[in-house]
Amino acid sequence: MYSIQIHPGRVVLQHPQHYAEIYPHGALLNAYAIRLADGSWFNTICGHATPAAAVHNLTTGFHSAKLSPFACRIRHSEYTFNGQTYRTGKFYAAGHAAHGLLYDAPFQITAGGSDAEQAWLELSHDYPGNQPGYPLSYRLSIRYTLSADGISLTTTARNTGTSALPLADGWHPYFTLGGCADDWQLTVNSTTRLAFDQDLVPNGRHLEDTRFIRPCSLAGIELDNSFLLNPQPAPACRLENQRLQLDILPDSSYPVLQIYLPPERQSLAIENLSGAPDCFNNHIGLLRLAAGESREFYTRYCLSEKSFRLINGGNKYENACLKTSLRVSTKLKVFQPGIEINQYLAKPHYPSSSKLVFVHSKLLPNLDLTPEIILIFPQRPKSYNLLDHQLCLTTQTDRISLTIYH
Prior knowledge:
Strand order of the largest sheet: 12-13-14-15-29-25-24-19-22
Strand content: 35-45%
Low-confidence stretches: 308-406
Distance between the termini: 45 Å
Largest sheet: 9 strands, antiparallel
Number of helices: 3
Helix content: under 10%
């Protein structure tokens, strides 16, 4: 059963297996956590210690900030709209306006509730057009929904003025899977990124970038790039390690994904954007809202703990708890990509009795279905209890298949 709890400066959407914490100040998502198989909680959002800390420290990293009416940077803080040139910004990076005008806006709670399937919270802020560089009024409404599908974020912008306005929308969350980013893998549904100049503003060129079309280790990689997403239905982005998997699932309203890996490498900013950085000038994804017109933007985050599907002599075992109760004390031999596994398996003798062999099915050209880890025993054991062994495996899929060869 879901519930909603309203506290001073924060709201919690709660379920026995997951929860989300939202700060009305800035409409920040400060936590999204799941209960793990061992009973502990894991929060994937690198947020703020308290609502007061968010107020004082938000511009240090802009953790979980709402980006509106523009996202990322506007070159030299200037743009032209309807024949008039404006100079805008509240925060500046290298002389460029950055991260919009509403990141620290006082949003009001307008609705909230819960039932057996979900808990939700609605927030809104009326921007009165009181900034000379953006003298146009609009209402921004945000709905957070926590359900079995994760946490969804729906933003609605409505032009409350009498003339058209330019608009872009985005989010600036930092995610963690625990530990160092060098131990994580990233997948992005994109083969193209925008070329930036030295000030991280697009220079008009597109670059082919296929590094993350398949799971790629972040070890040694630096990132501060805008990727143009391929059409759905694949997740726009997946971040994973041995135990956890985070999927980022926007709809077509967010066609750009900005990804930034901070120098400390303890988190990863994955930013859904409706338009490219500097879209007020380059017009890549720039929206024009007529008076009274509304536009909706949607994304969803889904954090999960990986589970195993175990196959033993034709008997299948599907139990997520097994992943914390299996143990391996023997020395392992791990095949690396490029090894001819079939030739190895054709040898008359398996490894010595002190070894198990793990191999991903992507290395087996004749297997194109569910990825597998293969355990090869040197001789048929009289008995083998899976619950006596721990398997610590890195996988690139949502589910691991194990085949035991006796």
